[in-house]
Structures are given as structure tokens and as C-alpha cells.
Amino acid sequence: MSGKPGAVPAQDLTPLEASAELESLSRDIAEHDAAYYQDDAPKISDAEYDALRQRLNEIEAAFPELVKADSPSQRVGAAPAQGFRKVSHAVPMLSLGNAFDDADVGEFLGRVRRFLGLDEDETVEIVCEPKIDGLSVSLRYENGVFVQGATRGDGTTGEDITENLKTLNDIPMTLSGAPDVLEVRGEVYMTKQDFARLNRDQKEAAQKIFANPRNAAAGSLRQKDPAVTAARPLSMFAYAWGEVSDPVADTHWGFLERLRGWGFPTNPLAEMHDRVDGCLAFYRKVEEQRAGLDYDIDGMVYKVNRLDWQDRLGQVSRAPRWAVAHKFPAEKAETVLREITIQVGRTGTLTPVANLEPVTVGGVVVSRATLHNRDEIARKDAREGDTVIIQRAGDVIPQVVSVVLEKRPTNSEAFVFPDTCPECGSHAEREDGEVATRCTGGLVCPAQRVERLKHFVSRGAFDIEGLGAKHIEAFSSEGLIKTPADIFRLRNQTEEISTREGWGEQSANNLFAAIEERRGIPLDRFIYALGIRQVGQATARLLARQYGSLQGWRDHMDAAQDRESEAYGELVNIDGIGPSVADDLLGFIAEDHNREVLDDLQVLLTVGDFEAPDTSSSPVAGKTVVFTGSLETLSRAEAKNRAEGLGAKVAGSVSKKTDYVVVGADAGSKAKKAQELGVTTLSEQEWLALIG
Ligand code: IVH
User: Fold this and answer.
1) pTM, whole model, 2 decimals?
2) Which residue minimizes the CA distance to atom 18 of ligand 1?
3) Pairing assessment for the beta strands 660-663 and 624-628 based on DSSP bridges
4) How far is the centre of ligand 1, averaged over its atoms, from the C-alpha of 354 (Å)?
5) What is the C-alpha separation between 396 and 173, in angstroms, rounded?
6) 239 in ligand 1 pocket by Cβ < 6 Å?
7) Residues 616-626: pLDDT tens digits?
């Protein structure tokens, strides 16, 4: 098994590099775990996630002394979400090690044989079961009665979803002839058909649309109201056990038979093989059937059949030694690329989009896929009329993977990436070192204009009730608004608006009232609303805090156009803003049409000065602080947050203007510079004492 291609092999890292990479991998994995387990909204594909975990495992294997108690390798999944009672699993719910290719499967079987010390002529029966892409649950029966059902959670502690699980037809409420205590484990899932139907209903009812059957199952299972779960079509396959008061079988195959006897569905495709070739042939057979199955599977699980051997094999770091998951590659499909179109984003990025002959991939109909950028099209030589392979991994946008050259029409022509913006005709250029090609038209470009207007009224920005993306598109195409300021002049067009189809005087007045309400806006929201590249909500807040007022901000930005100026130094010295963000900010401010927009808005709006938190009693209000070295009791982000909450400014580097430098362990040049400049340095303890 190997990690990301192109990465430095784990064993070639220096301990310092290894430690830094482990830290960043742990952070990323924790974030993705939370997105997956708590929000049911994964941000990356399973394969990408597995690659992160794999890399972490490799580095930890090469540097065992760097394995931390809270490393993701020591946990399974994420902590339970709030709201449900917690259940601790009497027997932990394990995860599975991964095999990515045939060789990994061979190694797994080799390890099993070596561990058990088997002779060459001894056969090892392996049960091969499809790996269901759902949610694992544990069902507890006492004296044959279903008493508790729980999610996996982090493997040790899950959520109590007993009432919700009682609504599943696949789960028997009573068992006859079962041990006094029996925990049955399995996977709850939604069939592709049920998923499609549910989403259709959700859409009609203007309710949340689920990205895939797994998310739909997760969302349905974790309802506060069991009646909602009852109305959702959920299914289950049983495949494992937790706590049992008496042995239930001698083999896994025998256990599956007993499960069926009690009335649990088990996967009908499961087969037993006793050679690696047989396992692999079965894997390929199921992979071919995959798209046609009515439920999502993401691989094959191989399990040693004899339970006495399973016992002897035991587990390593939360995964059994007697089982492994052989993952399938992302689902692919073949279709025809009808046309390549170019989409223009808010910041002018030209993204090539493949418009496809609609095709089903993993239960979802796909008719568009991304071709990423100019280089990617050239690398794949994707042409209109080509037959292409597309791939949908997890919830990420479908992508074109490759071209089936044998099926290329004889008259096809290479795609010529435009040098001008398809929306406004402005020159499209590519900056050094960037992959993106951008339209230089700025607000002259209707596509950018509309995208920017949508951003301007979006949730974190002006958030005008009743003026969503759809209205912006319509009003723009009708010429009612061109620039953000036009929104605040819409009242002058009462006639045009109240006579639009579906509108009347009342709805027009409601809209005007909602707009009026936003004539006053805090500075940070205002800056964010401008849609400057790299200036998200957090950066906008930093700027508002630093410069206080709209005029103050503009004056400083004008002064900072001179990269030698003190104003520029101040800008790039804000912790969280560097030269790259500064470039985008200053580039935006320098453009005439942006200045006009700002002038216009400044007249129409009241932009509130940044309101510093009440820091009248704060000893560090208005002081500039630099943190350096590693702090013991606070993370860097916490330290920064606390300081800012007390009215201090946190800067990234030391200058004459710095009031305090807080020096943690292993501090380097910043501590030295503070001494040279005669800036007060404080230890972490002294800092904490100062701020109380
Ligand atoms: S056996 C001790 N069998 O995969 C081993 N797991 O990556 C327990 N899964 O948490 C798992 N289908 O949610 C097993 N046929 C199957 C499975 C299966 C899906 C899931 C399960 C588990 C995860 C491990």
C-alpha cells in the first residue's frame, strides 16, 4: 500500500518534517471526519480521504515515536453529534484496514497465514462480502427483545437511536433462540430507487436535497422525531456482532446463517473462497455488477471464516487482523462529450465544462462534468464528439477522466481554449504560476457582474430578504441592475418591478423595505460583500478591525499602493494577511470601475465603523502583540482570539510599533528582533497574568 504519488517517501522525511506533516494530516483528517460523521456532508472523496489516512499511517510507521495519543490512527470516526443520548459500546465497533490492489490482498492473506503459523497445505476459508456504503449500527437484544440501537460514533461511544431504528422493517423486534445478550451489527442504507424517489418528494416539498443515498440514510436515521425516520425508506444488511453471552457459531458463514434464521437480511452476494485468485475473481465480478445493484457498495470485505482463528488473530489499532476492505475505484461511466462550454466565475475564472450525453454513474444522472482548466483539456486532448470516461467520486463534481481514442470521430478537431472571455469579449489571461485563466473585464463582464452581484446579496454579505440569486439574474438580464449601487436605486423603477410577471405593488414594496433595512451595514460585511479575490469573511473582519471605518480603509489602501510605504507594511503585517492577499486587495482598489462602485455605494449607504468589543477595562486594548514560538496552554488561534477579544491587534512580525512580543518555547528570530528593537517581551505566563 502506498500513499500519495509524488510525496516524499515517509522514511526519507526528517523527524521535523514528519512531525509537521503528521500535525497537518491530523488536522485535515479531523476536519473531514467532522464533515462526514457530524454534518453528513463530506468535502472530499473516499479515495482522497483514504490517501490522507494512508499517508498518516506510513509516516507513523516510520516514526513510531511521533504517534500521539490523539492521532486519528488511534480513533475510529468522529465523536458523536450533539442531541442524542450517548451509548458506550460494550465491545468497540472496529474499522477495517484497506487493501487498494491485488498485491495488498495477497499480503493480507500472507499475514494471516504467518500469524497463525499455518502449513502450506492448510486452506484458509475467506468469506467475501460486498462493503455496503451506509451507516453502521449496533442492535442490542436482551432475552430476545430489541432494547437498544446505536450508531458507531467514534467506535467507542455512539448515539442512541433506538426509537428511529424500531421503524425499520428489516430489523426484527424479537428473536427466538438467541443468547440472553446479543448485539447484531450491520449497515443501514437506502436503495438507489428509494433515494431517487425521496429526493423527488423533497424537491416537490422544497426540502433539502440529499447528495447521495448514504447522506440520505444518515440524515434520515438521525432525526429527532422517529416519525420522520419512519417515513423514510431505510434498509439494512447484518454482518457482525458485538457483545454476546454465548457463542453463536463456529464460522462467520454459520453466523450469517443464524442471522437469517432470526430474520435479519444478509447480503445475498456473499461467497466463500479459499484462494486469493478466487477472492480476486469474485471482486471483479461484483465490480462489474456494481452499477446495476440497487444499493451503493464501495468495495469487498474479506473475512477469515473460522471464528477460533479470528479470536487468535485479534486486532491492531482498532482494526481486526482477520478482515480487510478491498476498495473499488471511483465509479466510472462512458458517454459522449457533446460540447465544451466555458463558464465564467465571480472572479473571472474561465472553467471549461463538458456537456455530456446524460449517463447514470453511481445512481445519479450526470450531464455535465468539469474539465478543470486549460492544461487539463490539453493533457487529455478532450474534443467535442469524443467518447469519454467520466468519474464521480463521493460528492465531488463529476470529472472527465480520459478520452476513448478508438472511438474518436475522424473529423474531430482539438479544442481551442479561448483567449477572450466568452461572455464579454475582454482579454482572458493567465498569470504566472497560476492554472486559472481569467477574464480581465472585471465588472464590464456580465458573467462576473452577475456572479458578483449574487455574492453581494448573499448570506454573509448584504443578505437582502427576497433578493436571491434568481432575482439577481432576472433583474440583471432585464437591465434593472448593473452595479451593486443599482440595488439601492431600485425604488426608482417601481413601475417596472411591480408590473413584472408574478409581482405586484405589495411584493415590490416588500422588496424595497428589505433593501432599506440594509442601507446600514457593518464595515466587515461591506468589505466581504465586494467579492475581492481571497477576501472571505475572516479577512474582511481583520481589515475592518485594523482600519476601523470605510474611509479609513480606503485611505490606507490608496496609500499602500506604494509597496515601499508604511501603509503597505502595516497591511501585510496583519496576522492572516500576506503579500498575496494584499496583491488582490490593492489590485481591486486600483481599478477604476471598482473605485466608482465604492464611491457610489459610499453615498448611498451608511457603513458602520468597526465596533471594537468593550475593552475599557482591558490592559491590552489598542496594543499590538506578536506571538512567537509554541505556547503551552493555548493554541495559536486561541491566543489570537483572546487577544483580539480584549481589543489588541495581533501582528505577524515584530516592528517598532509592536508593544509586546509573547515568547513561547523554541522561539526564533522574532524574539531576537524584539530585543534588538527594545520591544517588551513576555513569557506565556506573564502574558496570561497581564490579561488576567
Ligand atoms: S465488518 C470488525 N462487513 O465498513 C469489522 N463492515 O470500514 C467490522 N461495512 O464500520 C466491520 N459493509 O460500517 C463489515 N460487509 C461488511 C461491511 C462493513 C460495510 C462498513 C462498516 C465498518 C466499515 C469499516
Assistant:
1) 0.54
2) 131
3) parallel
4) 36
5) 38
6) yes
7) 778 888 889 99
Nearest CA to ligand 1 atom 17: 131
| Three-class DSSP category at 546 | helix
Tell me the CATH number at 672: 3.40.50.10190
Residues 595 and 668 in one domain: no
| Residue minimizing CA distance to atom 9 of ligand 1 | 131
In a domain, 529, yes or no: yes
Residue 222 lies in a domain: yes
Q: Is 131 a catalytic residue?
A: yes
Are 122 and 212 found together in one domain?
yes
User: Residues 545, 654: one domain?
Assistant: no
Would you state the pLDDT for residue 527?
96
Whether 581 is in a domain gets the answer yes
Mean pLDDT of 423-436: 87
Report the number of distinct structural domains present in the chain: 3
In angstroms, the CA 476 to CA 446 distance is 9
Please list, in sequence order, all residues whose beta carbon lies within 8 angstroms of the beta carbon of residue 557, skipping any fewer than 6 positions away.
567, 571, 585, 586, 589
95 lines ligand 1 (CB under 6 A): yes
Grid coordinates standing for 213? 443515498
Report the amino acid identity of residue 66: L
Q: Are 337 and 354 spatial neighbours (Cβ–Cβ below 8 Å)?
A: yes
The boundaries of the domain holding residue 650 are 624-691
| 668 secondary structure, DSSP code | -
My answer on whether 653 and 594 are in the same domain is no
Residue ending a domain, choose from 265, 295, 327: 327
User: How much distance in Å is there from the Cα of 153 to the middle of ligand 1?
Assistant: 14
**Confidence (pLDDT) at 551:** 95
* Angle CA 449–451–453, to nearest 5: 65
